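== Sequence entry ==
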Amino acid sequence: MECPNDTPLFDLRKNSTQNFLNALSDFRSLYAPIHGVVCVGLCVFGILTNIVHVIVLSRPSMRNSAVNCVLTAVAVCDIGTMASYLIYIVHFVLQREVTCSPTFTHGWMLFLLWHVALSITLHTTSLWLAVAMAFIRRMTLRVARLNSSWQRPKFAWKLCILIYVCVFIMCIPSVFVHEISLYPEGVWQPAQRCSQFYPANYTQPIYTFTVSKEATANNCSLFKLNIWMIGIVFKVIPCILLMILSFGLVNKIRQAERHRRKLTNVSLNNPNSVDGTSHTKKKSYKSDRTTAMLVVILAVFLVTELPQGVISILCAIYTADVHKYLYFHLGDILDLLSLLNSSVNFVLYCVMSSRYRQTFWMVVLPAAAHSGKIVYRRISSRFGERAYNQSRNTHDTNNFVTKDHIDPMLLMTRWHGTAPL
């Protein structure tokens, strides 16, 4: 797309710029042939695991927690996002060269328009839900009362609905800045192998998905305003909030660990405390593992979210060059990172939460779980029979997937905010 008086991002007269753009083009040529297959695999895996995720979190032992309610809403958003992307990638990428039906019809362009809007809406919702989840977890650690309103599912569901409504309203301009129009430079004709299915010399108009004339008026002011909102409200602000809340959670974990060490030192000085040393080692190992996992999750979040926020802001300033060079060559990679982000949550939860694993096995293999062959062995191997029995008697408001008493808020990773146009 072209915007009058648009500021160029790249100086095409420089050899270094040409080399950089050529490298981007070569990279896209290498990756593009496998992008469709990789994304289909990720979407299928992510949809199935997120369905299991919703089933596990909706069990009676798990759903009485505000954090689990938010996690369920996040999983539903991920399912919708990946289902829409799966349809898109199969039709527009995998089947385009092998099908005997026209790809760029008016109906499919209408689907593409709503796919972009739906992807932005669902992913932005899940990103802000992650912020809400971090906030709830932070307030839960701050408030000493077990029956705090921050921990109640009713509060969490109201917050989820509020976030979705607000994001939906803010995503409406993304629909109206685009339009479906006829492609003026050609028509669709069936390939030679498909000629038997169509009359001789059959042609069909090709439709395309472009920025509307109203959005490109006045130096693309409406389009740039929409991009600014996507970059700032949908990306940068939640990124900053999640980083602040994440560091606050890490600080809380470290404070709790220092407090436990003081109590352990007192216990070690008490001759009646026999297992104080081994208890301290287990606590220290668990704290190190949890903190390391939180750092990994935060790193994944930063890798997938911040670059897209930066590119969105660059797009608002250097609209033409960003669309022509960056989105065209890197759009597939941004989508891949986003799909990875949405499909690995189930694996992270299984790694981080013993209570989640317990409930998962009870859902997948209920007979073995009830007989104690799986759940009891897995739980008792880490916490001992006494800890397991105590956890069963714990108040329901503590039954979120971060049941381990030093586990931080899960899920810092969320999906993309702008789809390449």
In short: Residues 283-288, 372-421 have pLDDT under 50 and may be disordered. The longest strand covers residues 178-188.
